[in-house]
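Q: I have 103 residues here and want to know how they pack in 3D. Can you give me a structure?
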Amino acid sequence: MFLPESYGDFIFSIVGEELGFAGAISVLFLYLFLFVICLIIAKKAQDKFSQLLVFGLGFNILLSAFINAGVVTGLLPTTGITLPFISFGGTSIMIFGMSVELL
């Protein structure tokens, strides 16, 4: 009962509680893996706009995930940024879903 919005902004703490340290690190590595895939897609893109779009969308997903992890662990102040694809929130899931669709 200590965590505010445990199903939304602080879902990473629940992931860490249920899956342990290895599970929490695995979730972060999955975001890093998604970013590496975005870099590969950007490298194969035909024009500069496509490269920058793919890099920007991938970096946005990665940055949101690591900011959320920093907030949950107490390294950063509370910001309200959700964990991509995991946190409960209609707009967040829609935006990140459209980002992956564009990728």
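Q: Anything worth noting?
A: The mean pLDDT is 89. The radius of gyration is 15 Å.
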